[in-house]
Write a structure and sequence with these properties.
With about 1700 residues, the chain is α+β, with helices and mostly antiparallel strands. It is built from 55 helices and 41 strands.
């Protein structure tokens, strides 16, 4: 055991090593579990981080090891130095959350890397069971890997076998090959708009050169000239800003590193980042682990200055011994000073850099004095130290900054990436095979042969080989011969000539690049030069094109359209990498329109000639590819399966399709280093625009050839078709064969499959269709498949296997999200926008089970809020902003896909809709989108009709065809609140909780800061546990408040804790209101959904637009529309009205006079023609659109009328204009579009935007006509407000009541949350300070420790699980057999907390206390035998009897009672109660219920009570608590059964206690020992047993109903007595048997009163407080008085 507490790590090296410049932080260093150092391996310096993890047997080992791994990651990424992390992690490092950070950077664990890449399977390192001793390797070390092994026989420390890593280090530092590309000049210009005039002046003389008529001297001259013009323009613009910006611009021109675009690019060597070399004796050492070039340059300059100062000092002291010049000055000092003056790293000139500082007025270019050198050295030392430390500190602090920027500017994009599984790994290792003909030269013996080969360089020393399929090993190489050693146990005869084969995994950069070039070069150079340039070399393709029935439509694209270039440039992504041309997207976005216009002319000239070859280059990172062919339409498949019609299909995937398209030169990039370019005649990078255009042409040809035979579909390189008759596949297969041969394409038959919905089509594929395939193995007739992320199934009953894999992946992502450092809002967005879309994409044909959704609830809630025991997942995902419950998301996803199908594929959508409206489909037979959506709606309580109206809980409804998807989501979220209420009613204090208002609650939470949301969300979701609750989960937690000592409940913290009074005072009124009217807010605060809101929604949904008035007769009309709303800030109670006003201008606009706009004269110009309440959703834009729709229908009855409609709502005008210009399909998915459905599109109808609510000053500045228009808009506004008068008073009152309730609760909840925050923060600080002071006092006050030692108390024990039989082997035990036997006996009888908990408070048990307890037990003979159940020897069946052999004990409790004259004394009853409670507690701790507690089942051994008879024992806990059931038959003995058992409710722990300790006779075994009679004793039922009532008793929902339906007098009396008992208990819980005078002492102590109230108030799955209940009787025994004779 003590070995688990060993600490310490070390690094021992035979190679040169040194410690880190900066020591580990104090927290890391004091842990004694992590260290770091640098080791020089040949030419490379490697950082080694050693880790010793916390043993898993210690508390919180996993979390502590995760922290250690996170520390290792932090230290490994401080600099770019190659790092190896190794040690005994005491857990699998790849299973810790911190491993994700390593994995994102490409790190691997040595065991997995050796097995997967090099086929080296390492054994376990610890007792043959685990491999926790391992290495973690970065990608930069892969190329040096040679081998790895485990010294299984050498246990250098304890039982761990050392793991060894063998590296093959090069003689020189490996160089990286890169393209020297210019930097982007984005951000250099202070005003990017200043670039346009400068470019115009620079490019004016070059206008003629950019014309098509001007030829190029060499390909690419125009593009290079244009790039030079742009760079010159940027340089001049910077120069102008430098002189005009007043010092804000520091650049005088474009630096050299930012120029050189479109120049030929060649690979150059770049040295990898490295640490500064270690100085010689006396040289300044590095100040930090800085790998920057600038840091090394500054350190080198400092060392020069120190060396110069030392030489100068020697010269002045006459100790200089080097060569001197003619004037006696040392020659070396002149050279050293010249190097100092010309040093790099200080801008253009080091002296100029020095002179910019005020402390250096002059700089001597020759022979400085000692004082100047000393000052300069001191200054450079300070600068170098500051620079190096700044570089390292910047890298360390960048992580938090990136998190902040990521959350605020990119919506948590990096966190989205972090929760995804690891991407497809790049190629870092290849399998190199070499086979050469070999001839035997010399045979030394049977096992050692010398073979001659053509190229001996392919075989390395000690590498494994095979000759004639016999394995061997190279022992030496001489000239062109190799010596091979074969196994001694292999006696086969080898031929004189054969093949010598060598297979090896190579990780070096050259081997990987060379292997890739060998593989891809034949593919990329498939075509010869003629085929790449002349279409006549493709005769079969030309024949296919001529067979087409219709020509390919031509696409006219004007490449010189400057506006199009500007539009595309502004849409370019800024995150893309710089191309080989040197241009970055950010550069192109800054260019003015004139520059883009010149670029369009240049590129247009390349249409006929092609791009220059030096531009057509690409970097290639080779990844593994996943098959994802496109296939069938599941809606058609579902219709075929349900109707029985025939449907079948064929899906194929083209192999390397993009690589057989237009040519480009490529260079492989491995580990950041580029290989030599590979020329090609075919192949463009996948995703390149040229290759995409070519694939579009290929897809078009494929579809055009197969149309008429089958129904073809093409998605890039995935081609498929469906057919309603199997015979149609034959001609389609023939056409497909001609198609692929004509274009020299290849089909990947391993990814190709076939499917069918009927046996006829299946037989056709198996018997006939297989003949059209290249081989029978190419037939893959599937019943389900996943394509492009979507699931398809081709049988009536599908399988959940494919979705189960994605579900498991989603759980892994949620687990990764739970460790993400982002705040709660960002994590919620990641679940909503990253995990849910990934999980449910393409699941339209599936119905996830309710169990799977329940698991998702919990995992998502814990990932967002945190791992809190009492958290309600339904509340977390329903009340928090930015996230939806998975059930809600899935329903919205299905509906959105159906709406989209109506727009893009109406035929398939109507198939789904008709099937949805048809017969009800079984959930188990879901085979398509209709069945899945129907079952999902039914599961969530939604109904629908053929009009597209869906109705759900809380009177929520929406229209599929008229509501936008956003509106539908809002409605479904509101309806889901009803389910949230159902799921939280069972929780403590939530019995009377109302339905939550999810939108308003989320709005309140959204108003807090992210860290505040994290805290408040725990309250919203019920995730906070009081001390009393924690004590029910763990006995190591105290139920008392650590601040004030009172019982710690949630209400105590909020309302009454004295320590928090100062923070509670500002919120006294708020808390009082919450305590009085919102009691459930203590457990789960949220805004309640007003009942009036549901009724209001029903009423508003009934409104319709009024019938149009008679059409006007005039030819020109001016109309004003406006809308008005009440309760605008509360969408739940908002009511909107609209109005249409016709204006009649008395004169022409030019003839208007001021008198025409005065008083009654102006009012007479406007008349109201229509007004009303908005139907459906109540928004102002919808009300404005309703006015426009009514106006259009009104004017449609008139002919030749020209109308001008003025509206002040731009969204309504935009939707109206889009509908007028593009038709219904263009707006069918938009919000409020239902108002325009089936509306005649108007003629001569002009909508104009007018500004609303102008001020008096604005009106005075307007023309008379504009003033008249403003008056018309105001008249429409007045009319819209007046329309409210037409609404019913009940509706308005209902809206006002809803608004008032919502606003009151919103304000109250916001204030309550603020109070929780203030008190919570203060409480955390108080707890922290209290804990620190207690720790200090306990560690420093020796007297306190001694006083505590004198009064040690063992905590209330539970049984320590320990085997009753133990394999004793005392051969190596130094204390002898007797001691060991006693130790085992003591351990078997020991009481101890289970499971062992972390010591947390001052009453924790120490090892000293344990020893003291053991010594006391052995000396006094006191053993805590808490189990005391009869032993079971055998059970089985003998004949027709079931037998049970148990230990024979003494008299039962009932027999002792009768032996004592039917009476026990009060002390005896109390003692019996204590022992019975202990037996029951142990039984419950084993997860079992007795269910038949009675005196007959308690027996004695000596004077100790034992529990017997387990006939009706059952398990209530098996991983989780059993669920509560009702309407059950009675189990146990009716006389002693609990009230809940008689009511037919499933029994739990509370019922065993109620039976055992209830202080009344009809439910007790203790107090029954007093002399009295029960009211129903003696009442018997003939023909029935006592244990059970009559079998035909009807099950009832209440006790009264049960009694009413009973047929026996006994049960009638019994039930009446139970009802009276409940009424008596409500008035006086003291039972009547205790009201006699002789029990005065018991009654006065009220122990039974408290016990009864406690047991009767327990919840079904609530854990009783056994210790507290026993303490009641222990205190009662003490207070009753002198002990009497127990009489047992």
């Amino acid at each position: 055991m003590l070995r688990s507490y060993a600490l310490g790590v070390a690094l021992l090296s035979k190679c040169p090593c040194r410690p880190a410049v900066q020591p580990l932080p104090e927290l890391m260093a004091t842990s004694c579990r992590i260290s770091e150092g640098f080791v020089r391996l040949n030419c490379l310096e490697v950082k080694i981080i050693s880790v010793y993890g916390v043993p898993r047997c210690l508390p919180e080992a996993t979390s502590k090891n995760n922290l250690l791994l996170a520390w290792a990651y932090q230290r490994a990424t401080v600099s770019c130095v190659p790092t190896i992390v190794a040690g005994d992690f005491n857990t699998c490092p790849t299973e810790l959350p911190a491993w994700q950070a390593f994995q994102d950077l490409g790190w691997v664990e040595l065991g997995a890397f050796a097995a997967q890449v090099h086929d080296i399977h390492l054994p376990c390192t610890c007792k043959g069971a685990t491999r926790f001793d391992t290495f973690l390797l970065p990608p930069s070390m892969f190329q040096f890997f040679s081998s790895a092994d485990v010294l299984a026989e050498d246990h250098l420390f304890d039982s761990h076998a050392p793991m060894r890593l063998h590296l093959h280090m090069p003689g020189s530092k490996p160089a990286r090959w890169i393209w020297p590309l210019p930097r982007t000049f984005n951000g250099l210009l202070l005003e990017p708009s200043s670039l346009a005039p400068v470019y115009n002046s620079v490019a004016a003389p070059l206008a003629l050169a950019f014309q098509d008529s001007t030829p190029e001297a060499s390909p690419g001259d125009k593009l290079r000239l244009w790039s030079v013009a742009v760079e010159e323009s940027v340089s001049k613009a910077l120069h102008l800003e430098y002189h005009a910006a007043g010092g804000r611009q520091t650049l005088r021109g474009l630096p050299k590193a930012y120029s050189g675009r479109c120049k030929p690019v060649h690979r150059v060597k770049a040295q990898p980042p490295s640490l500064p070399r270690q100085g010689r004796n006396g040289d300044p050492k590095p100040f930090d682990e800085d790998t920057s070039v600038l840091g090394r340059q500054r350190l080198r300059q400092l060392r020069r200055l120190v060396t110069f100062a030392q030489g100068l000092d020697k010269y002045h002291k006459g100790k200089y011994k080097g060569p001197l010049g003619p004037d006696g000055w040392p020659v070396s000092l002149d050279k050293e000073w010249a190097a100092i003056v010309g040093a790099s790293g200080y801008g253009r000139h080091f002296p100029r850099w020095v002179l910019q500082w005020p402390c250096f007025p002059v700089f001597p270019l020759l022979r400085p004095d000692a004082e100047f050198v000393a000052d300069l050295t001191s200054f450079i030392r300070y600068d170098t130290e500051a620079l190096q430390k700044q570089q390292v500190a910047t890298k360390c602090k960048t992580f938090k900054f990136k998190l902040h920027v990521d959350a605020h500017e990119f919506g948590g994009a990096r966190s989205f990436v972090r929760v995804k599984p690891a991407g497809k790994p790049p190629f870092t290792c290849v399998k190199v095979t070499s086979s050469q003909p070999a001839q035997v030269r010399t045979r030394h013996n049977h096992h050692l042969w010398q073979l001659q080969v053509p190229d001996v360089s392919k075989f390395e020393l000690h590498c494994p080989v095979s000759y004639a399929q016999v394995a061997g090993q190279i022992t030496s190489t001489i000239d062109n011969c190799v010596m091979v050693l074969f196994p001694a146990d292999d006696d086969c005869v080898l031929p004189s000539n054969g093949l010598l084969c060598r297979c090896k995994h190579e990780s070096s950069w050259s081997a990987v690049v060379g292997s890739l070039m060998d593989f891809w070069a034949p593919i990329w150079n498939r075509d010869n030069s003629e085929e790449a340039a002349d279409i006549s070399c493709w005769p079969r393709y030309q024949q296919l094109v001529h067979l087409l029935r219709s020509p390919c439509p031509e696409i006219e694209v004007d490449l010189t359209d400057v506006g199009a270039w500007v539009h595309v440039a502004r849409k370019l992504s800024s995150s893309k990498a710089t191309g080989p041309c040197g241009w970055h997207n950010q550069d192109l976005k800054l260019l003015p329109a004139s520059a883009l216009g010149d670029l369009s002319k240049v590129l247009n000239s390349y249409v006929s000639t092609g791009f220059p070859h030096d531009i057509m280059m690409a970097r290639v990172a080779v990844l593994s590819k996943v098959a994802s062919p496109e296939g069938a339409d599941q809606a058609l498949v579902e219709e075929s399966l349900l109707s029985g019609s025939d449907l079948s299909g064929f899906c194929l995937d083209l192999r390397k399709a993009f690589n057989f398209l237009p040519r480009v030169r490529r260079s492989f990039q491995i580990n950041g280093s580029l290989g030599p370019p590979v020329p090609s005649t075919t192949g463009a990078p996948e995703g390149d625009p040229v290759s995409v255009l070519a694939m579009i042409a290929v897809c078009w040809l494929y579809v055009a050839l197969l149309e008429g035979l089958v129904a073809p579909k093409a998605y890039v390189d995935n081609l498929s078709w469906t057919a309603d008759a199997p015979d149609n596949h034959a001609p389609a297969m023939l056409v497909l064969n001609d198609f692929v041969q004509a274009l020299s394409l290849h089909i990947d038959w391993g990814k190709t499959y076939q499917w069918a919905t009927t046996p006829v089509s299946k037989r056709w594929w198996q018997e006939i269709g297989v003949a059209f395939l290249p081989s029978p193995e190419a037939l893959h007739l599937v019943s389900q498949v996943k394509e492009l992320g979507s699931f398809y199934q081709f049988r009536r009953r599908g399988s959940a296997q494919l979705f189960g894999e994605r579900l498991q992946d989603a759980h892994q992502r949620l687990q990764a999200l739970s460790t993400d450092p982002q705040a709660l809002p960002t994590r919620a967005k990641i679940v909503q926008g990253g995990i849910w879309p990934f999980l449910f994409f393409g699941t339209e044909a599936l119905l996830p089970s309710a169990t799977a959704m329940q698991q998702l609830h919990g995992a998502a809630a814990r990932a967002i809020v945190g791992p809190h025991h009492t958290l309600s997942a339904f509340a977390a995902l329903g009340l928090l902003p930015n996230v939806q419950d998975p059930e809600v998301y899935l329903l919205c996803h299905h509906l959105s896909q159906l709406k989209r199908a109506f727009r893009v594929s109406p035929d398939a959508a109507f198939l789904v809709w008709d099937r949805l409206l048809g017969e009800q489909l079984s959930s188990r037979a879901t085979c398509g989108p209709a069945g899945a959506l129907q079952a999902l709606l039914r599961r969530n309580g939604w109904s629908f009709d053929d009009t597209g109206t869906f109705k759900g809980p809380l009177h929520c409804q929406f229209s599929l065809f008229s509501f936008s998807m956003r509106q539908i989501r809002d409605v479904i979220e509101l309806a889901w609140a009803d389910n949230i209420q159902d799921q939280v009613l069972h929780r403590n204090g939530m019995t009377a909780a109302p339905v939550p208002h999810v939108h308003l609650t989320a709005q309140v939470l959204r108003g807090f800061k992210p860290w505040e949301q994290q805290y408040v969300a725990r309250h919203f979701c019920g995730g906070f546990m009081s001390g009393a609750e924690k004590q029910t989960w763990s006995r190591m937690d105290t139920e008392h408040c650590p601040l004030c000592g009172e019982v710690d409940t949630k209400g105590h913290r909020i309302f009454s804790c004295v320590a928090l009074e100062s923070k509670r005072e500002p919120y006294r009124a708020c808390l009082a209101q919450v305590q009085a009217n919102h009691a459930h807010w203590v457990h789960m605060p949220y805004v309640a959904w007003p009942f009036e809101a549901s009724v209001l929604q029903l009423l508003l949904a009934k409104f319709r637009l009024p019938e149009p008035a008679p059409a006007p007769l005039c030819s020109r009309i001016t109309i004003f529309t406006d809308a008005s709303a009440i309760n605008t800030q509360c969408p739940t109670s908002r009511v909107t009205t609209w109005a249409v006003v016709v204006g009649s201008c008395p004169k022409a606009p030019t003839d208007l006079l001021p008198s025409d706009l005065q008083g009654d004269c102006l009012l007479s110009n406007f008349s109201v023609v229509a007004q009303g309440c908005t139907p459906g959703p109540q928004t102002v834009p919808r009300a404005e659109l309703a006015a426009l729709a009514w106006t259009s229908r009104w004017l449609s009855g008139a002919t030749d009328i020209c109308a001008t409609v003025y509206s002040d709502c731009q969204p309504a005008i935009n939707l109206w204009n889009k509908w007028v210009n593009h038709g219904w399909l263009a707006i069918s998915g938009a919000a409020n579009s239902d108002l325009l459905r089936d509306l005649p599109r108007p003629r001569n109808f002009l909508t104009v935007k007018i500004k609303a609510h102008r001020s008096a000053q604005e009106l005075q500045q307007l023309s008379l006509w504009d003033q008249w228009l403003a008056a018309g808009n105001n008249a429409a506004d007045v009319a819209a407000k007046a329309a409210r008068a037409n609404l019913s008073a009940a509706l308005l009152d209902m809206a006002a009541t809803t608004a008032r309730k919502c606003e009151e609760e919103r304000v109250l909840l916001k204030s309550f949350c603020r109070a929780l925050l203030d008190m919570g923060v203060f409480e955390a600080k108080q707890r922290q300070s209290t804990g620190a002071s207690q720790a200090t006092a306990e560690s420093c006050d020796w007297q306190t420790f001694l006083s505590r030692a004198r009064s040690w108390q063992m905590p209330q024990p539970r049984l320590l699980p320990f085997p009753e039989t133990w394999e004793e082997d005392w051969s190596n035990w130094p204390f002898g057999v007797e001691y060991g036997t006693k130790l085992i006996g003591w351990l078997q009888q020991l009481s101890w907390p289970v499971p062992p908990a972390v010591p947390a408070h001052s009453w924790q048990i120490t090892y000293l206390e344990l020893s003291r307890s053991r010594a006391r037990d052995w000396t006094q003979g006191l053993f805590y035998l808490v189990q005391r159940f009869a032993k079971l020897f055998w059970y089985g069946v003998e004949g027709r009897f079931s037998c049970l052999v148990m230990e024979m004990l003494g008299y039962s409790l009932e027999e002792r009672l009768q032996g004592c004259g039917g009476t026990f004394t009060a002390p005896t009853c109390v003692l019996v109660a204590d022992q019975c409670l202990r037996r029951i507690e142990y039984l419950h701790s084993c997860g079992m219920l007795h269910r038949d507690i009675k005196p007959e089942n308690f027996v004695f051994r000596g004077s100790t009570g034992w529990a017997e008879e387990a006939a009706v024992i059952t398990r209530y806990y098996d991983g989780k608590h059993a669920n509560m059931r009702t309407n059950l038959s009675l189990t146990g003995t009716a006389r002693y059964a609990s009230i809940n058992a008689h009511k037919g409710i499933e029994q739990s722990r509370r019922d065993d206690l109620e039976i055992d300790e209830h202080p009344d006779e009809h439910l007790a075994i203790d107090v029954r020992f007093e002399p009295h009679q029960l009211p129903y004793l003696g009442q018997t039922v003939a023909g029935t047993e006592e244990n059970y009532p009559e079998d035909d008793l009807a099950r009832a929902s209440s006790v009264d109903e049960y009694a009413r339906k009973s047929h026996t007098k006994m049960m009638q009396v019994y039930m009446n007595w139970l009802t009276a008992w409940d009424m008596d208990m409500a008035q006086d819980p003291i039972p009547w048997v205790l009201k006699e005078e002789k029990y005065r002492k018991i009654r006065e102590k009220k122990a039974f009163r408290i016990y009864l109230a406690t047991t009767r108030s327990l919840g079904f799955d609530e854990r009783p407080d056994y210790r507290g209940l026993r303490k009641l009787f222990a205190d009662l025994r003490t207070e009753i008085g002198p002990e009497e004779v127990y009489g047992l």
